UniProtKB/TrEMBL annotation:
Keyword Zinc appears in the UniProt entry: no
Cofactor requirement: [4Fe-4S] cluster; thiamine diphosphate; Mg(2+)
Signal peptide (residue range): none
CDD domains: TPP_OGFOR (cd03375)
Protein's name in the database: 2-oxoglutarate synthase
Tagged with keyword Electron transport: no
Keywords on record: Iron, Iron-sulfur, Magnesium, Metal-binding, Oxidoreductase, Thiamine pyrophosphate
Superkingdom in the source lineage: Bacteria
Species for this entry: Tengunoibacter tsumagoiensis
Domain Thiamine pyrophosphate enzyme TPP-binding: 54-201
Length: 282
């Protein structure tokens, strides 16, 4: 039976499991924003599923009263998409880190983007592998010195927003963990958006890569004048390197989703006669 909450508060989405993140971890701000966003939408916890991969950020589902699935490194998206295809009535979020989505899970991100299944993705980007103690990730800046790159990272830096814009994602936004109210509003809008919603969150790891000061200085809200239907302009904002723009870069409201299209097909189709079909090969 659906557990409807009349006037929920963020606390109503908190589980009994206390977050095990280091003090000051940016992921606390993201968790608070998700609690707020869920309360704002009055989501029924038993009709909501939060799926993650592996990493510090991927511990997320344990701290929510919703259903959760702590899956395998880089594999949150296959689980989340399968779930939404089978149960389109549920609200499905996929969460995790930059390693999870842009390294081992990058192939899944690409194809999920093209499918436009109605799920909301929240990537907590600390530009580092936190759980495994500070190796570089695809979003680490070139030249970054870590235990895994003692002479500085030679590869160039991955740009999550320009990448998903190029993949025609229908809702693209960025938030900052230190601004949970703004982030909560993005989470609400991402969940309400019908289609694949991608929310990139700057979420520092003070233990292995302290980026709070740099991001406090670089974070710049996107102007109210920005036309969210203009993908070219969104791309220019995404390519900006000095500033880290936050807010909604791009939104396309009327794109059909794959989950809707597949369910229509199932409703329209007659029972498939497998014996008649196999006659072709007899
Ligand atoms: C198949 C596989 N390869 C490698 C690992 C080791 N591993 C666990 S978490 C992780 C990276 C986590 O980084 P990120 O996704 O950015 O999450 P964060 O800890 O920074 O939140 C790696 C490489 C693993 N668990 N499974
Ligand atoms: S290691 Fe970094 S990402 Fe992991 S919990 Fe600690 S501060 Fe957060
Ligand atoms: Mg990370």
């Amino acid at each position: 039976m659906t557990q409807t909450l009349i006037n929920p508060t963020p606390k109503d989405y908190k589980s009994e499991v206390k977050p095990t993140w280091c003090p000051g971890c940016g992921d606390f701000g993201v968790l608070n924003a998700v609690y707020r966003g869920m309360a704002g939408l009055k989501l029924a916890p038993d009709q909501t599923v939060v799926v993650s991969g592996i990493g510090c950020s991927s511990r997320f589902p344990h701290f929510l009263k919703t259903f959760g699935f702590h899956s395998v490194h880089g594999r949150a998206l296959p689980v989340a998409q399968g779930l939404k295809m089978a149960r389109p009535d549920l609200t499905v979020l996929a969460v995790g880190g930059d390693g999870d989505y842009f390294s081992i899970g990058a192939g899944h991100l690409l194809h999920a983007a093209l499918r436009n299944i109605d799920i909301t993705v929240v990537v907590m980007d600390n530009e580092i592998y936190g759980l495994t103690k500070g190796q570089t990730s695809p979003t680490s800046p070139q030249g970054h010195v870590t235990k895994s790159t003692p002479y500085g990272l030679l590869a160039s830096q991955f740009n999550p927003i320009s990448t998903v814009l190029s993949l025609n994602v229908s809702f693209v936004a960025r938030g900052y963990s230190a601004r949970p109210k703004e982030l909560a509003a993005l989470v609400e809008q991402g969940i309400q958006h019908k289609g694949f919603s991608f929310i990139h969150v700057l979420s520092p790891c003070p233990t292995f890569y302290h980026t709070f000061d740099a991001w406090d200085a670089a974070v710049t809200p996107i102007s109210e004048e920005h036309d969210r239907s203009d993908r070219g302009k969104a791309m220019l904002l995404a390519m900006e390197t000095e500033k880290q723009y936050t807010g909604i870069f791009y939104e396309e409201k009327e794109r059909p989703t794959m989950d809707q299209a597949a369910h229509q097909l199932v409703q329209q189709s007659k029972e498939f006669d497998i014996a008649a079909y196999m006659q072709r090969y007899a």
